Amino acid sequence: MSAMPGCPACEADYTYEDGAMFVCPMCGHEWAQAGDTSPLEEGSSVRDANGNTLVDGDTVTVIKDLKVKGSSLVVKVGTRVKNIRLVEGDHDIDCKIDGIGAMKLKSEFVKKA
């Protein structure tokens, strides 16, 4: 059994593994495991509505009211989404929105903050 690395942000020893990422429950910092390369880093890039290139950990702002499927909730224009994670697929941003929870967004409906 290998030991988990300490958090580089707050130096806590309580990190855990979540897929291909390490997560610190003390401060919420997430970072990639050593040697981990996602397919998005190998050539393709994700761009926001204005054409700016997005990377993991960016903060973005929603530019259109978005209905949450299966719910009566709406993500309002101007909502800031911190610490995004880029993924493959039609909805290419994986994030957590305060008051709503985990969501996947399309990059065409956000702009880099």
UniProtKB/TrEMBL annotation:
Q: Which Gene3D superfamilies match?
A: 2.20.25.10, SH3 Domains
Record-linked InterPro entries: YjdM, YjdM_C, YjdM_N
User: Highest taxon of the source?
Assistant: Bacteria
Tell me the protein family, please: Belongs to the YjdM family.
Task: Output the NCBIfam families linked to this UniProt entry.
Answer: phnA (TIGR00686)
> What protein is this chain from?
Alkylphosphonate utilization protein
Q: Which organism is it from?
A: Kushneria marisflavi
